[in-house]
């Protein structure tokens, strides 16, 4: 299929309708398309008949489709025959690292958190012997769903014809360059990259991040140097793989899912030769500078301080007098003084009791009313891994009521033993509209699990709190209604924390 023969409106595989041509380069065309069966946007790449590496690209795409890390863009389909050659992948909406750097360097911890997520995702890809080899700021995206996405794993290298004898080292250096860019707003290369100016040089070597931007922590400067600035290492060992980058940034706080308002019609840009990206430019908010710390008085104290101290003393004296009068009145009446604290209700008692976090032994997607009883269990562990940027989600449904196919679906936690549950905090997606129930019981069967708390129209961090502590080995977050998500309806859980009554 030649590029000229493909036009908006063309349908591939009888389901992918091409809508907008995003970019063209050397016989490869990137489109924004619609998956007519699932009613969602997708990115589709088509190829001219003379494109030299179609087989390599399709083979790489098929291999990448087996990756399950949600921080790597999904490949949905890839085909190569006499009539068609195309790759269909996830359409990502958000801001690239280039966009995030439009107003200058990021906060060091945020830059490190983004790269730490990317490094961990690439480490998973490397375990499957799939590599990136051409990491650029446009490949690192902070999505509108408040997660990190790495675009182009395996596919972009095949498209450009890139090969290497040391892929782990190349991707580690790429991650180091992304960290350098996030910390400084410059690109450590001979030329500008994605609108970022080239990094300044000193004595023929790139300056380290701390030499470019004030306030960069020393350990992040060291990680960057070890990853991508060999001339500045001064005997320090190189970080030679994404796994080593992940370990070096293990203590960095990961970016949290936070609600962000985007324009209703975001601009469209190409972030990768293999995947599409909607770039929504956020309204820039000027953060007020932190007020200076109050100066200590240099003399013997101000008049205002003396007045305030006098008022405090008078209030204390008044309080003591009122208390003495109350007690005296009670003694004089011959009755016992009333209790100063009312007996707490069940809810109040629970809230004042110390709690402790109980780690689930495992998790699974729970679909007892479906055909196979499973709901993306391969990703269920991401909701209890302690990383708020990873998530489990349900299948996509045609309506908020799960397509009228079933009454509910959820995430089932096996606590390993019977425990008391005082509350469960679930971080849901940022879009409102989810109705969820908390069910607890001693058997992993829907009929054995008792509903102990509910939340309607929920989103973000949601606390499900029973009136009384519930006991059981199994804890179920049960969706009975799903929020809208990219033309379909999904239930999403970033993280679940189970609390049990503790001891004071």
UniProtKB/TrEMBL annotation:
GO terms for molecular function: kinase activity. CDD domains: PK_MviN-like. InterPro entries: Galactose-bd-like_sf, Kinase-like_dom_sf. The chain crosses the membrane at residues 307-327. Gene3D superfamilies: Galactose-binding domain-like, Phosphorylase Kinase, domain 1, Transferase(Phosphotransferase) domain 1. The keyword Transferase applies. Keywords: Kinase, Membrane, Transferase, Transmembrane, Transmembrane helix. This is Protein kinase family protein. The lineage of its organism: Bacteria, Bacillati, Actinomycetota, Actinomycetes, Streptosporangiales.
